[in-house]
Specification:
The protein has 177 residues and is mainly alpha-helical. Helices cover 59% and strands 5% of the residues.
């Protein structure tokens, strides 16, 4: 079974036993889990702005975030005195790839796939659709298609079938007498 091709959040089965999670309490822990999921969904490398926090669907998230800051699970990294706060999860990169790491892996996979397909192009030319094959490959395919060899398999099947029918008739006639 393969996993779906969508982002997923690696979550330790001992998540709820973590000392900081226990200290934060159930409501703030739920907010922290929603923050983790939000960071993954938005691809923000462990940071969320206050408008993003509001879209997570956690009631009274401001109070929970203050608790998470107090226990050390979240940091307020806002700059200046504006209303737009920015929160960062310091442990994000321990369990998740950062954007530049994801892009580097994608690029490497893309290059590997291109190298694989480029290496197989000549070998597969006879099997590709005519539009993808070279002129020489098309010519060889046409020559093979119209070769004058009779098909030995069809002759073998016809002969074998007739032999089996004859054998069955001989046995049934011999059994009746």
């Amino acid at each position: 079974m393969s996993l779906p091709r969508r982002p997923f959040l690696p979550l330790d089965v001992a998540f709820m036993d973590d000392d900081k999670i226990v200290e934060a309490g159930a409501v703030a822990s739920w907010c922290f889990l929603a923050m983790l999921l939000g960071c993954k969904r938005y691809g923000t490398d462990g940071t969320l702005t206050s408008p993003q926090m509001a879209r997570l669907g956690v009631d009274k998230w401001q109070k929970s975030v203050e608790t998470l800051i107090t226990v050390g699970l979240v940091m307020d990294v806002s700059e200046g005195e504006n209303d737009r706060k920015v929160y960062w999860i310091p442990s994000w990169s321990k369990w998740n790839l950062l954007a530049h790491e994801r892009e580097s892996r994608r690029q490497s996979a893309r290059e590997s796939a291109q190298a694989r397909w480029k290496g197989h192009a000549k070998r597969n030319a006879n099997r590709n659709a005519s539009g993808n094959a070279t002129d020489d490959a098309k010519k060889r395919r046409e020559e093979n298609r119209y070769a004058s060899d009779p098909s030995p398999i069809s002759d073998l099947v016809d002969n074998t079938l007739q032999e089996r029918v004859d054998d069955i008739l001989r046995r049934t006639e011999g059994g009746r007498s």
